[in-house]
Write a structure and sequence with these properties.
The chain is mostly beta strands. It has two domains: 87 residues, Sandwich (Immunoglobulin-like), CATH 2.60.40.1120; 654 residues, Maltoporin, Chain A (Beta Barrel), CATH 2.40.170. It contains six helices and 52 strands. The chain has a 36-stranded mixed β-sheet that branches. Strands 8-9-15-16-13-14 form a six-stranded mixed β-sheet. Strand 2 and strand 3 form a beta hairpin. The longest helix has 19 residues.
Length: 895
């Protein structure tokens, strides 16, 4: 409580200091030489003494603006707009003007000043592109690109480096127009230095294919980071070395080189202080940009990831993390016609995770609670690479080829103790695998005339999954199903091998009828073939092997999925309203061979889609999207023989599975108002799955067998989000909310069961910077999770006030502290409180490339944090053990 009071006192002090400075409101209207209002004109106030920008505004549709200035100071007011001569006048801020100040701009016939005007404008809105001048919004304490983005209106950067703009995730990051590590946001936000960023461009409906711009419905959102002129054609970056007690170490290198023809980015990292430069989750989500084509036509096949239960270690759930990374990205443009790009990433992780979880099994008769303690050791070595070449002899023709590869060697050791009723088992599990995949893609785009455009896309991918799971259990696992003959401890090994080959192609023809109408015809195919082999054996005390030959324990399955489709999309525009209805006719053939028999089905489906966009103005839009998707599952859900998934879970496939039908509807609202510095966005999402693939769960005490079925009842998810962001003088206020309600159905022990999950999160934040020296960030976060099943209900709450402080003092010193307090309230367990505090002290002499830093992590030495989760058959409350307190001293040098 004392800590919370201190936070409130600091915040109140910041408010009083800020409002102690007398402010004057200067308002006006900007019009052209015909008297018409100019929207998005930039108004800048320059302090004539400090020679710095003191305030700025952007005019609204009525040409109005208002800025807050310090009383009795003299400013130079500058007004600029593309295509007009700039306006400039000296103004002394004595009293707030009651009558708007009229400013008229004269058309610049020669437009020679456009480049100069653009370079000064804090915000430039042109169609689907919004450009921010970084130095206007930043506070001067930013270290990396992620810090810069957090300062921009409507931007969110999560702890893992993901970026959202107006609630929508960023798909790609470009640097000076070229992709940075295939557009990966984390590598960009965590490594690109803040002091090289000149402007940030938000590219909505991004499309990097010249012949297709304006005709296809791109939903991609990209950021283009424009570098400062003095950072081009030179090597820049930073080098960092550090160490501390108990063998702590860190080393990090960022080097970047950009010029007109060659861009090279090199990142290297090694540390054991819990900084995941490239985690296992990054490896599995790094697609290389070679996406499929058929999903855009309303069809998809969900192949099981080769993640296969490997835990994703992050700083807030691991006892220790050791990371090594080497990453190279290159872009080379030998001529205007050719472009070569690619990357290579190698990483190694050695992580230890520990947790205690209370697991409540849904519909389990009698005692239904298990206490599970677990410690996991994950070691992995992985590599990713991509090579791409693009040929573009003119704006009407583009041909490109890409190759992407991914390989890894992973070992996951799991040491557990399970207490269920009066039974206690010691469990050792080990999963090893060496998965790899290779993808190739060829694309060609040709604008034959200004009304006729053709495109062809083809891809091939080959993927191998080979997990081996070894289970050593003090009690006999699955005694009524698997005929083990040994003694305790029982040693069971599950072998599995899955090979996947996938071919996709799509031919598109676009016919532009006029400026507001065009039609797109599509012909495509998707052919996926898979082979699955699985078996299991027992290792006896004397080392001999007991191989199980029962047919229900051996899988040998061939699976084929074929999809041929014809689609049409019509795009039309009525003033501010743009609509795109579509229809896709699919012919499916699905079959599997196993146990000397073939099962499958043929199906023809007509799948509709619709999207609409209403543009109130350039920065005020409403988007609606609706789609029906036929989703098919992969070979692993068809394999009928048993497969061991964990110490208490078996899985048996179902040869009679059919596809599910997925209806999705989303509505997105965006209002970006620079006149009053208000940013408001929100959205609603609804999905309904018919014949969804769910599970029949059969319990035998703690053990269970899962088998997939097409459930008759509909599974539904409805979610929403909203964000309110307001800037007022030196303060920024942000309110955000997210909620999601999901309903899923399954069958447990022959009893139909409906699971309902309702999750809510709310967050309020106040940020201010005073005197360019003191940065304060205070907030409160609340998470409410409610889980309901047929005879079980659980509620969890997390209350989290937090505060971040950064202050500069003396000459060159900076103190930064981040604190959060957590109160975890559970309906089934006592309330737990824990708090986290990190701090660092930096010294950098003005103008020096050297920086010295002492940082302490988890200074309050918190041992664990609480989380909860919900699945189709159990509710879990976790306590994750985290890294203990440590100190590190480091030295950084800017290149």
């Amino acid at each position: 409580m004392n800590k919370l009071v201190l936070l409130i006192v600091l915040l109140a002090g910041a408010f009083s200091i800020a409002h102690g400075q007398q402010k004057v409101i200067f308002s006006g209207e900007v019009r052209d030489d015909q008297g018409a209002p100019l929207e998005f004109a930039n108004v800048i106030a320059i302090d004539t003494v400090k020679k710095t920008m003191a305030a700025f505004a952007v005019t609204n549709p009525q040409g109005q603006f208002k800025i807050s200035l310090e009383k009795d100071r003299v400013y130079t007011i500058k007004v600029s707009f593309i295509g007009f001569l700039p306006f400039e006048r000296t103004y002394k801020a004595e009293e707030s003007n009651s009558t708007p100040f009229g400013i008229g701009l004269t058309t610049d016939a020669q437009q020679l000043g456009d480049v100069e005007v653009v370079s000064e404008m804090p915000v430039l809105i042109q169609g689907d592109t919004i450009t921010y001048k970084a130095e206007v919004f930043t506070q001067g304490n930013e270290r990396k690109l992620g810090d810069v983005l957090k300062d921009l209106p409507g931007f969110e950067v999560d702890a893992d480096g993901g970026v959202k703009v107006q609630g929508k995730s960023v798909d790609k990051v470009l640097v000076d127009g070229k992709e940075f590590f295939e557009g990966d946001t984390k590598l960009a936000t965590k490594n690109l230095p803040a002091n090289v960023v000149d402007r940030v461009q938000v590219l909505q409906n991004f499309n990097d294919i010249s012949p297709l711009r304006g005709v296809n419905n791109s939903e991609q959102l990209a950021l283009n980071i424009q570098l400062k002129e003095d950072k081009k054609s030179m090597v820049f970056g930073d080098l960092k070395l550090g160490g501390g007690p108990e063998g702590r170490y860190l080393a990090h290198v960022n080097t970047f080189y950009y010029d007109k023809k060659t861009n090279i980015n090199l990142i290297a990292d090694a540390n054991n202080v819990g900084i995941p430069a490239f985690s296992m989750s990054d490896y599995f989500r790094f697609s290389g940009g070679l996406g499929g084509f058929s999903r855009g036509a309303g069809s998809s096949i969900q192949t099981t990831s080769n993640q296969l239960g490997i835990p994703m270690a992050e700083r807030n759930n691991a006892k220790s993390l050791k990371n090594e990374l080497g990453a190279l990205n290159y872009n080379f443009t030998p001529s205007n016609k050719w472009h070569i790009n690619g990357f290579a990433i190698g990483s190694r992780v050695d992580n230890t995770l520990g947790s205690i979880s209370q697991r409540t099994y849904v519909l389990q008769p009698g005692n239904n609670t298990e206490l599970l303690t677990s410690e996991q050791q994950v070691e992995s070595t992985s590599g990713l690479f991509k090579y791409g070449i693009k040929y573009m002899p003119n704006p009407n023709l583009q041909v490109d080829y890409s190759g992407f590869g991914r390989l890894a060697s992973i070992e996951n050791l799991d040491f557990q103790n399970s207490t269920f009723g009066n039974q206690s088992n010691d469990i050792n599990g080990a999963t090893t695998q060496e998965p790899y995949s290779i993808q190739q893609q060829l694309r060609a785009f040709w604008a034959a005339t200004n009304k006729d455009i053709w495109s062809f896309e083809g891809s091939y991918s080959h993927e191998i999954q080979d997990p081996t799971y070894n289970l050593v259990n003090s009690g006999q696992p699955f005694a009524s199903i698997i005929p083990m003959t040994g003694n305790s401890p029982y040693n069971l090994t599950q072998l599995r091998y899955v090979a996947t080959n996938k071919y996709e192609s799509a031919l598109n023809y676009y016919r532009i009828l006029n400026k507001t109408n065009h039609v797109n015809f599509k012909l495509g195919s998707n052919s996926t073939s898979q082979t699955l082999n699985s078996s299991m054996y027992e290792t006896l005390d004397d080392g001999t092997v007991n191989e199980f030959s029962q047919s229900n324990l051996i899988n040998l399955v061939d699976y084929t999925f074929e999809d041929y489709y014809l689609g049409i999309l019509y795009k039309t525009k009525f003033g501010p309203l743009e609509m795109s209805p579509s229809l896709n006719l699919h012919r499916y053939k699905v079959w599997n061979n196993q146990n000397d028999s073939q099962n499958g089905f043929d199906k023809t489906m007509l799948l509709p889609g619709f999207s609409a966009r209403y543009q109130f103005r350039s920065s005020h839009t409403l988007n609606l999207n609706y789609a029906v998707t036929a989703e098919f599952t992969d070979v692993q859900n068809f394999a009928e023989a048993l497969v061991v998934r964990s110490y208490n879970s078996l899985f048996r496939g179902n040869t009679d599975l059919k596809n599910s039908l997925y209806h999705s509807l989303n509505l997105r609202y965006f209002n970006f108002n620079m006149y009053n510095f208000l940013n408001l966005y929100g959205g609603l999402n609804y999905s309904k799955r018919l014949d969804d693939v769910s599970n029949i769960v059969q319990f035998n005490n703690l053990e269970r067998v899962n088998s997939p079925i097409n459930i008759n009842a509909a599974n539904e998810v409805m979610s929403g989000y909203a964000s309110f962001d307001k800037r007022l003088d030196a303060f920024r206020f942000n309110l955000s909310a997210n909620w999601s309600r999901s309903t899923s159905n399954n069958i447990i022990s022959d009893t139909p069961n409906q699971n309902v999950s309702f999750n809510q999160s709310y967050k309020a934040t106040i940020t201010t910077t005073l005197f360019k020296k003191l940065y304060l960030d205070f907030g409160y976060s609340l998470a409410l999770n409610n889980y309901e099943a047929r005879n079980t209900t659980s509620q969890f709450e997390t209350h989290q006030p937090f505060g971040n402080l950064e202050i500069g003092f003396l000459k060159g010193f900076t103190l930064n502290a981040n604190y959060e307090y957590n109160s975890y309230v559970s309906s089934t367990n006592p309330t737990q409180t824990f708090d986290l505090l990190d701090a660092e002290l930096r010294y950098r002499k003005e103008g020096s490339p050297w920086e010295f830093k002492v940082e302490g992590m988890n200074l309050l030495n918190t041992t664990g944090i609480r989380r909860d989760s919900f699945s189709e058959s159990l509710i879990s409350t976790f306590e994750y053990f985290i890294q203990k307190r440590y100190w590190v001293f480091s030295v950084m040098y800017d290149l």
